[in-house]
TrEMBL record:
Record domain Endonuclease/exonuclease/phosphatase: where: 5-80
Organism: Paralvinella palmiformis
InterPro entries (alphabetical): Endo/exonu/phosph_ase_sf, Endo/exonuclease/phosphatase
Lineage: Eukaryota, Metazoa, Spiralia, Lophotrochozoa, Annelida
GO terms for cellular component: extracellular matrix
Any one GO molecular function term: catalytic activity
Record GO biological process: cell adhesion involved in heart morphogenesis; larval heart development
Protein name, per record: Endonuclease/exonuclease/phosphatase domain-containing protein
Length: 192
């Protein structure tokens, strides 16, 4: 994963990372700058990940509680209501339970739609009245003929809309970015 990877709009990574030397409240490590925990912190900062777990996840009797199990997200509002449940089996790790806000892209329906409010219903009525409805004697045959004639009448007398043009929204434009942009413009107006 790189800083410029735009193939994902939202990222959630969770698991047992075993970085007990990292203090997640200050985003610092007790190890030297070349230690793998510092490298991990640097990567998290570089790709703008948020660490969501604030309580210790490993609890052993007689030992210091440790925060080892992490939930990293690309959006600080993506995860909510984290609870810690007892570990599975004989594990000393607590199991995080959380709610996730799932974001789905807006799908544009590119098919044209009937605009019934603009239909030519008088002409349609005349067309349907001119049809020979007495041919088949069985119900299914009449229904099939009616459906075919009616679908043709809809195609002829009900206009369709043009499919909407697809607008590509830039991935970085989210609610937070728009709020910051508005704040910047307000500050600029005050400065002038």
């Amino acid at each position: 994963m790189t800083q410029n990877d735009s193939s994902y709009s939202h990222i959630l990574i969770g698991g047992d990372f075993n970085y007990h030397e990292i203090d997640w409240t200050t985003w610092t490590t007790s190890k030297l700058a070349d230690h793998h925990s510092q490298t991990f912190l640097d990567i998290c900062r570089d790709v703008y990940l948020f660490q969501q777990v604030s309580e210790p996840t490993q609890v052993r009797h007689g030992q210091k509680e440790k925060l080892l199990d992490l939930i990293l997200t690309s959006d600080d509002q993506m995860v909510h209501g984290i609870e810690h449940l007892l570990g599975l089996g004989i594990s000393y790790h607590l199991c995080p339970l959380m709610g996730i806000y799932v974001y789905t892209p807006t799908v544009m329906d590119k098919k044209p739609k009937q605009r019934y409010h603009k239909g030519k219903y008088k002409e349609m009525t005349v067309h349907l009245a001119a049809q020979n409805w007495a041919e088949p004697n069985e119900c299914i045959g009449i229904l099939i003929i009616f459906m075919n004639i009616f679908e043709d009448a809809i195609d002829w007398f009900i206009p369709t809309s043009k499919p909407p043009k697809e607008r590509r929204k830039k991935l970085w434009v989210n609610r937070e970015a728009l709020a910051m942009q508005k704040k910047k413009h307000t500050a600029w107006k005050q400065y002038k």
